[in-house]
Amino acid sequence: MRRILIGILMTVMFITACSEQNVSTTEKVPGVTDTSIKVGAWLPLTGPIAGHGITQRIGMNAYFKMINEKGGINNRKIEWIVEDNSYDPQKSVSIARKLVERDNVFAIAGSNGTAQNAATFPYFDKVNTPFMPGLGNAPEWWNPVKPYLFGVQVLYENQSRALGRWAAKEGAKNILVVHSDPAYFENQAKNVEPGVASFDANAKVEFMPVKFGTTDYAPIALQIQNSKPDAIVIIQSVDELVALAKALERQSVKIPLYTYAPNVSNDTLDLGSKAVEGLRAMSFTVPPTADIPEVEEYRNALKKYEPDARPDYQSLFTWAEAKVFAEALKQVKGPLTRENFIKSLESMKNYETGILPPVTFSPDNHYGVIDLQPVMIEKGEWILKGDFIDPTKDW
User: Could you report the per-residue pLDDT of 138-153, keeping only the tens digit for each?
Assistant: First the structure.
């Protein structure tokens, strides 16, 4: 009888061990079940740049809703959890901890802010959760490579270089760079000068820091008028850009204005009106009005899932980012784990969204896009000014 009982016990233990080995590995992966993938993000939905955050949420949200209605990614639907960080770095850290530890997300996708995202890196260095920021970037993010971090936004510093070269190519000899005073804006602004020098070593560049959130630009416009620049590069938020442009217009100051990609939006057109006519900028994407299938799909999705939203460069960018994120999920080989997802991203080569330039990652390069699209406001609309350019070269 004792031998029989021992035999039964060993059989039960064997069956139990086999059953544990056969349990789907995805049940042990944070944020992944047989039917869903949980993804998190933080965006400035309130505060000084809420307009950016709300628009950026629209694009990624519409893409994930479209994918989910089609059955999801390999039969798993995306659950995208978005928290409001109010453009605050410390609040972003708290949200990151909540998303990873309480909401148990698989990855972070679409989060906004250079300082805001960077503040979370010490935490992500420990948890190693895959992280694809939206708007927000800095050179030190990518060298050395952070194993969990992937980006499809061109460096702000490269945008500034391109703007400086553009102004010099159009004949400017005395260029003023107006920028918000936080350090990350200042770092971006400094790169205008080497861009100018790449075309005209004799052109002069001066800098004017402005307190972030300033609303009264009348005295600043007067100061600019007295310094008599022949081009102004603006590294500020949309509201500040518009306030400066209107103050210059009221004082009948007509100087070519240049700005970076976050300001290529409907808000700039709507708020700036005639004051921003002629504004030059660098864009991440093709226009949201482009007559191509990839952009038409985006516009149709907005009509269906975000019916109150207008097509916009910023929501088109986050739509394209969601497309890259989803493609990497689709191409995962083996069980859906964080490690296999990262390997899938690292194997992405010249992936065509039809919206961004081709996206390429590798184990040694997690910074997937280089090129920018020059655009300009003419008759109240953003129009293309040539093809995509490589801002690191003398285009």
Answer: 999 999 999 999 999 9
